[in-house]
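subagent[fold] <- orchestrator: predict structure for attached chain, return tokens only, no commentary.
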Amino acid sequence: MSKKTGPEAILPSYEAEAAGWAQTRNQELWERPALEACVAGRAPGLRVLDLGCGSGQPIAAWFVARGDHVTGVDGAAAMVEEARRRVPRMEVIHADMRGLSLGQSFDIILAFNSFFHLSPDDQRAMFPVFAAHAAADARLLFTSGPDAGDAFGTVRNSPVYHASLAPKDYRAAMDAAGFEVIWFRPEDAELRGHSVWLARFRG
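subagent[fold] -> orchestrator:
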């Protein structure tokens, strides 16, 4: 696998395409059912960690508007600048999610349409990172593929890589890191065909 098209191309691709991507990013918030599941029964004021936050719109902006405290992390500096400009009430950090160590805990951890750009080995290594940033009873929301495999595509004019573990491997990784699955919705029509996981941190 070459660096030109593999997982190491992701940050350069989003660096190059940040402005155009932010302008054309779908703002319909089709993700709302999954986001609402994260906050169900919980008052505003939650601490939210958005990994691979992109421009901050519309997901981080939805949490901010709800009254939650959002910390966004993105490995592309140009995307960080987009987020700071577009959602000024969120804190944005320029960092790679791999090996992240903020020394803080959060009530919601998101890796929505970002985590699946990592290699399978890097994805496995992220579950202890999620756990290290999870408060008691935290929710974890992330996207994957419906089954094990990888795929290649583009974001505007730049290459992007996607990978997925098998569902049983995600379940095992979450269990080992202290998470229990609430639901897995593979290729869900309500979520525009995305495969989405919601889990709870049991500690």
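orchestrator: received. Logging for downstream: Residues 10-24 form the longest helix (15 residues). The chain has one domain: 7-201.
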